[in-house]
Amino acid sequence: MPSPCVATSISRRGLLLGSLATMFASAIAGSASAREGALDFLAIGDWGTKRAAPVAAAMGKWADGTQPRCVISTGDNFYPSGVASTDDVLWRADFEDVFTARGLQCPWYPVLGNHDHRGNVAAEIAYSAGSARWRMPARYFSRTEPLPAGGRADFFFIDTTPMKDETSVWNLTPFGGFVAEQMAWLEAGLSASAAEWKIVVGHHPVFSGGDHGPTEGLVRDLKPLMDRHGVQVYLNGHDHDLQHIVVDGVSYITCGGGAKPRDVKAVSGSLFARSELGFLAATVTKTAFHFSFVGTDGQPMYKAMIPNAA
Q1: Of residues 28, 64, 30, 58, the one with CA closest to residue 44
Q2: pLDDT tens, position by position, 177-197
Q3: Does residue 117 carry a catalytic annotation?
Q4: Predicted structure pTM score
Q5: Domains assigned to the chain
Q6: H-run or E-run covering 165
Q7: What CA–CA distance (Å, rounded) separates 163 from 182?
Q8: Apex CA 290: angle with CA 283 and CA 239, to 5°?
Q9: What is the pLDDT of residues 35-78, one digit of tens each?
Q10: pLDDT reported for residue 310
Q11: How many angstroms separate the first and last alpha carbons of the chain?
């Protein structure tokens, strides 16, 4: 079972359950010297509109200073109805011409959101073939990132829209086999993984205090699988806010503040919850997962450290 994280909000607004003293210690542990050679990545969700420009600008400045290895998108990449084709004008209008900073020209690993499913899912996958940075090889896929001292982090990117409830149109013929196939793939991958970190990325939250709340199908089916195979972090969007919730030792991190924030409240396990524009900046070593929620002013509003007890 992963150890509890230590965390703090570092502004006067927002929600904090925890100790400022323990967080101050974790901030020191997350210094540049402790993170040398580590995996740095950014994450953003629910951003697919021109309203993401303030977050994109802040991300760009952060990325130009830190040179992240990759960016993760937690879905709803294009509003309101995904893209029509690989030539859709939204690719340039809402992605290429918005996330322009040099530091953001690294690989992007996106998952599909419910709004992406309203458009041409195949086009979001196919765009990878002609893009220097968009990398979505399939509706679900995995990625291994090396860590210092021979460690590694295994990321599993999944399509949660068909899993969100039993009545989803995607669970009907001819899509009835998709959920079972994806879950079998995920369980096999998690079971085989010997990585120091197992991180699952999806669009819908498992647990959330946002307007959508917890996702019944994921609580029922995905949580037990992740618990069984030692997943430490689940990263998602869908709720348009920034949250950190810990349940049974697993950190559920909502990063959906890309463009249009909505109300959020504390729920059981909440360490942080805020309705604000922002993105996630993470640094991962063999022994710790450090992350911050960063606002459009470029300043962290919350920091946390998840230790790896394995």
Answers
A1: 58
A2: 889 999 999 999 999 999 999
A3: no
A4: 0.89
A5: 6-29+37-307 (3.60.21.10)
A6: none
A7: 10
A8: 100
A9: 567 999 999 999 999 999 999 999 999 999 999 999 999 999 99
A10: 64
A11: 8
How many angstroms separate the CA atoms of 285 and 251, rounded?
A: 16
Q: Which residue has the tokens 């937690």?
A: 74
CA distance 165 to 172: 12
Residues with Cβ within 8 Å of residue 39, at least 6 apart in sequence: 69, 145, 146, 147, 153, 282, 283, 284, 285
On the question of pLDDT at 27 being above 90, the answer is no
CA distances from 3 to 6, 36, 115, 248, 287 (A): 10, 23, 35, 10, 11
The sheet carrying 152-157 orders its strands as: 141-146, 152-157, 197-201, 233-236, 250-255, 242-247, 270-274
Average predicted confidence (pLDDT) for the chain: 88
Instruction: Answer yes or no: are the C-beta atoms of 269 and 7 closer than 8 Å.
Output: no
Catalytic residue among 203, 212, 238, 244: 212
Is residue 30's pLDDT more than 60? Answer: no
- Of 170, 258, 252, the C-alpha closest to 213 is 252
CA dist list (Å): 1 to 107, 248, 251, 253, 262: 31, 8, 12, 18, 32
DSSP 5: P
